[in-house]
Amino acid sequence: VQGEAARERDCPGEVSIPIGQAFDSIVFLHGALANAERIPWQALVPLAAYVIAYEDGVTVTVPVEYGGNIAAIDRRHADPLPHAMYRHEGYIGTYLADPFVHGKGPDGGDITMYGYEWLNPRPGQSIQSVRLVAVGDTDAAVVLFGLTGVVA
């Protein structure tokens, strides 16, 4: 998904995935198609949100924030950034998203998919659907590669 403010909008503004089951958590496997501004120790940039709708009509919104639970897919995770500031300040402020899958694309470039496990605050309640909705005003589109429901 990609917000309406993107210079070249190539993706829809939202997608919906039917679920129809109860889960204790959901693991989202996703990535951003471009970088968004990430300034260490400042507020994260919102790109999208997962809107979880339960069968009883209640909804929960899970933010997708660049540098928090998502990052760009076209680079190696924890690759040192070129600016000297990052070497002196350390990498903790620049890499918060958790890499789940790393590999190479057809062109030999790095591809990293990030995972985020959302803990369901209403376990046992059936989830009707998950919508991924673009909310940011950046060019960074969010790609959802998959989601996995977890029952403990």
State the strand order across the main sheet.
Answer: 1-7-3-4
Shape: globular
Write down the Rg. Answer: 16 Å
Mean pLDDT, all residues: 85
Helix and strand composition category: mainly beta
Terminal CA distance reads: 30 Å
What is the string of helix and strand elements?
Answer: EEEEHEEEE
Low-confidence stretches: none
Quick structural summary:
It contains 1 helix and 8 strands; from the N terminus they run E-E-E-E-H-E-E-E-E.
Description:
- The protein is mainly beta and 152 residues long.
- Helices cover 4% and strands 45% of the residues.
- It is built from one helix and eight strands.
- A four-stranded antiparallel β-sheet has the order 1-7-3-4, with no helix packed on it. A four-stranded antiparallel β-sheet has the order 5-6-2-8, with no helix packed on it.
- The longest helix is centred in the middle third of the chain and has 6 residues, at 84-89.
- The radius of gyration is 16 Å and the shape is globular.
Note the main attributes of this structure:
single chain, 8 strands, 4-stranded antiparallel beta sheet, 152 residues, globular
